């Protein structure tokens, strides 16, 4: 009987730890998805010819015969950013999961580089579960925070990942000390 009570106490103790582990996994996933999303958006923006523009404003003709149309850089236009948000989460299939051996926190890193350079994939888990979870989290963030993403990315700014993923959305409230990765 005593062994049964010990097993029950151990099971209760483990069950109490499980929600914290699941919550941390979810937080790591959403933080990683947000950071990867911003990285991908910034990379896509950088690929657009800076001379490319788009006309914004009203195409109606004013009583004086003029139009209220202005040309703005296409790369950071709302139209371009909205288009990017529609398809950017597909890039999550190019990411894998890396676990920090000291903290057991998960982070997400590219497993396929943009320019074809060899990547260090030691300790990176790359499978369908990881990519589908990351893609789903990315799509949720892109939908829920579309206005914030467009607001932050429509102007060139520094530390967008930290400002958006940590300060504005609290998706990475634990991650203010995550090293900045470069694509």
From TrEMBL:
This is CNPY2 protein. Pfam families: DUF3456. Belongs to the canopy family. The keyword Electron transport does not apply. Gene3D superfamilies: Saposin-like. It comes from Sapayoa aenigma. One of its GO terms (cellular component) is endoplasmic reticulum. Residues 27-176 form the Saposin B-type domain. Keywords: Disulfide bond, Signal. The gene is Cnpy2. Residues 1-23 form the signal peptide.
């Amino acid at each position: 009987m005593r062994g049964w009570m010990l097993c029950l106490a151990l099971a209760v103790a483990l069950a109490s730890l499980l929600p914290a582990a699941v919550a941390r996994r979810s937080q790591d996933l959403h933080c990683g998805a947000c950071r990867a999303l911003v990285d991908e958006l910034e990379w896509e923006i950088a690929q657009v010819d800076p001379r490319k523009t788009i006309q914004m404003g009203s195409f109606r003709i004013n009583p004086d015969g003029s139009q209220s149309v202005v040309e703005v850089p296409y790369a950071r236009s709302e139209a371009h950013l909205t288009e990017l948000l529609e398809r950017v989460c597909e890039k999550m299939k190019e990411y894998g999961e890396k676990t920090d051996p000291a903290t057991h926190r998960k982070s997400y890193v590219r497993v396929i580089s943009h320019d074809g350079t060899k990547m260090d994939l030691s300790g990176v888990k790359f499978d369908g579960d990881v990519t589908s979870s990351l893609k789903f989290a990315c799509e949720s963030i892109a939908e829920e925070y579309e206005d914030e993403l467009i607001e932050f990315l429509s102007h060139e700014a520094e530390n967008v990942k930290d400002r958006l993923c940590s300060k504005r959305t609290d998706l990475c409230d634990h991650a203010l000390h995550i090293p900045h990765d470069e694509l």
